[in-house]
Amino acid sequence: MSLNDTPSGERLHIAFFGRRNAGKSSLVNAVTGQELSVVSDIKGTTTDPVYKAMELLPLGPVEIIDTPGFDDEGKLGELRVKKTRMILAKTDIAVLAADITKGLGECEKELTALFTEREIPYIIAYNKSDLSEKKINSENEITVSAKNKTNINALKEKIAAMVKVNGEKRRIIGDLLSPEDTVVLVTPIDAAAPKGRMILPQVQTLRDILDADAMAVFAKEFQLEAALKKLSSPPKMVVTDSQAFGMVSRIVPESVPLTSFSILMARYKGFLETAVKGAAAVKNLKSGDKILISEGCTHHRQCGDIGSIKLPKLLKKHTGREFEIVLSSGRDFPEELSGFSLIIHCGGCMLNEREMLYRKNSAEAQGVPFTNYGIALAMFNGILKRSLGIFPDLAALVD
Questions:
Q1: Prediction pTM value
Q2: Structural domains in the chain?
Q3: pLDDT tens per residue, range 81-95
Q4: How far is CA 188 from CA 247, 295, 322, in A?
């Protein structure tokens, strides 16, 4: 990903579904204008989801996903279908590729039922129109030919028309600021920090501050005290990496609002209230309970890793109990959650809003408390109520 690329979590996810040999991969290639997927007359050529981040006019930055055939068979086929079902969690718009010469069968009907159940807007693209003169009249259907590139632009426009405009976009921090406000961003640089760049939540928060015509000051945690003294007046707020909560809270005066990047990201992704309520479950945990610690991205875990090392240690120290810790990362979020007593998730900066809410909703549906790194770390440091001070209604939920 180049420096100017839109992060995956901020892209519209458009997934192509269908049975084997419906021309799904050919349609993906025609829409993207690239040989993104391998095309063959052999059934089941696409064995794993294929992802492509790109600019797709007139939509802008999108993530295109080509999925395995939904009618695949055998043990391997069942695994491929399971992977396809997982893609539904992140799909903003679905394109169902159907063979116009065969019409809609049970496979297509099952897929459209899943789209409806998940409230995913979808289009049925009847492919191979070069082999049939069949006409369609439905608003969410279109005839296309991947082979002859017929109606491909019309399909793109149809997809673009399905993008809902829900008023002003949710903000990370900009709606809490006024022009000329100063925000201090505490950004520790440790062994886990990416070389030569900032982590995504820090970059996104900075951009939103600038979009609000406010100003940002960056400091490492051990520079914070000096940075505050250099300011002619107190900052509007201090935002810290959650791992530095303890040290930072001792330095920042009580009169200055303090929160974390992780808490702001949970709000941005739409699950902050759930995370605050979920944290209350920590006091009810029993020794031997199974805890899921989940990250939306994949990275090499290092000594001192927050998910695998720091959070389990702090959880044990805070409760005085031993737990069974299960780790997940990237796309490997478990479907079956009922065996867990608590889920602690990252801020979800690499996941789109739909997938983050799917994970939160799955936990709620299965009766499992769901919180996130920032909320948990604030609680372990005894400053949860303070870290939510910029959101009074949520701070009131904390005992």
A1: 0.77
A2: 8-161 (3.40.50.300), 174-264 (3.40.50.11420), 273-380 (3.40.50.11410)
A3: 788 888 898 899 999
A4: 11, 19, 29
